[in-house]
Amino acid sequence: MKVLSTPRDMYEWSREQSQLGNSIGFVPTMGALHKGHMALLEQSKAQCDVTVLSIFVNQTQFTNDEDFVLYPRTEMEDLALAELLQVDVVYMPSPESMYPAGYSTSITAGSIAESMEGEFRPGHFAGVATVVVKLLNAVQPTVMFLGQKDFQQVAVLRRIVQDLNFSCSVQAVPTIRAENGLALSSRNSRLSPADVSRASHIFVALCAARDIVASGETNAEVVITATRKVIDQIDNCVIEYVAIVEPNTLTSVESITGEVVICIAAIVGGVRLIDNMVLDIA
Predict the structure, then answer these.
(1) Low-confidence residues of the chain, pLDDT below 70?
(2) What is the pTM of this model?
(3) Which of 3, 51, 230, 234 makes an SS bond possible with 44, Cβ 3.0 to 4.6 Å?
């Protein structure tokens, strides 16, 4: 397993692989790897000839300085896991190589990035879009694998890949959950045992929404209200948003016809968590 730390070294390695005719799978992360990341890496290894894992805690996508400072960093454990999974390259650029002195460029993704996370974390997706474009330029992947838990992020990055004519495809991998239903996230390590239990009720709320729609309810506001009532019962929890959106444009829907996605953001025990579920009236 190679560990590369500069964009030039990463690009040169990827160019050699392309010349050999190898497809390149890419899993971008901020480290603190868990079973959700493992699922992405395993999918990449199953589909592509070689796999690149990036680890970079990107400060420009954090809208809260404390969140950036507290974000878990487990570099040695991450490298050990990557080697165990037989990842071909771990790309770990330094902040200085990603954002050298005088760097001033930023990429925005338009209206698809303005609702939900965009509303509650202004500037977040500009940071995500910019760093991922820089990573894509270095890695030159055939396929980029992303977790469905970050539903809006997947949609934003699909839009960027399409609009900026990147040759790679974007593949979403289903959310991996703990036994209690909590979506796996690096931030979960900051939850107390009691808050882990409380946070699992976000999944309960999503399931309640699914069941209401399955029973024939098509009014999105009715479903949102019922979902909020479930979350309101969670102690030490603050709801940021519950939204039902069209899966491609992420525009809010009033009536549920066909496939939509319900998205939730809530703060449990001081830790911000997001989750989502596809709803289908059919």
Answers:
(1) 282
(2) 0.95
(3) 51
